[in-house]
Amino acid sequence: MRDFSSDHSALALNTATLGHNLEGAGAGWSPERVIDACAARGYGGIVFWRREIDERAYAIGEHVRASGMKVVGLCRTPYLVGREVPAKIDDEARASVDMAAELGAPVLTIVTGGTEPDTKGFSETHKRLTDRVSALASYAQSRNVALALEPLNPMFGGNRTCLFTVEDALTICNAVNAPNVGIAVDVYHVWWDTRLAQSLAAARGKILGYHLCDWLENTSHMLLDRGMMGDGVADLKAIRRAVEDAGYQGLCEVEIFSAENWWKRDPAEVLDVIVERFRRTC
Ligand code: ZN
Questions:
Q1: From ligand 1's centre to the CA of 211, what distance in Å?
Q2: What domain range includes position 250?
Q3: Which CATH number is 142's domain given?
Q4: CA 35, chain centre distance (Å)
């Protein structure tokens, strides 16, 4: 297991942590300002959301690289299944791949969406998801982009996800069986899984991203009350050990949706706290 106690070059910022330009969230810093602030603190990389990038993918990617950091990934495809699938799903999904390619992001995250509208449960939804990920994977391959299926905490079932565990995501990943499809592991979504270590071991070589935050003991909002690393009850070191035992050596991205706490603070303070917590608690 890597030692981060005096080296945070493996630290990446997911811009959701600063509010990622959501209406009314965060300080509204431009991507360039966030990049410069991360580079000044020795972060190794950064992950953006599509809404921040718009038509400027290449320029923003160049700014990251010129600052000495890596673009680690892009969030995310549109939902591929469920009620909120866009009408032109193929066009929009391919456009998200194109944006990742222009940005220079090696990984595009997939949050799947929920149960398909004319169905119940998951079996038919999983079949359609497998088909849609397969179709997107071949296009993504042509653009040198990998796709990471991210399982979500089961409370997001219904409308946001049909994958609840690392094991679920790996099942779809194996069914698709494409060289550029893997999984993303997010502490917020997997910390509770008592079989996590076994599932991660089975995902050897398929882990494309590791997302850090903490689970607050008394969470107040299922989407927007993530904790800073060290403030909650997730066993961060044990999870990272299992992730690294499964072969992951990439950057670790901090992704904290926190409407009432971290989004209200000065981004400079948030970035400083992250460095200290990353070294001490992750
Ligand atoms: Zn995540």
A1: 5
A2: 11-281
A3: 3.20.20.150
A4: 18
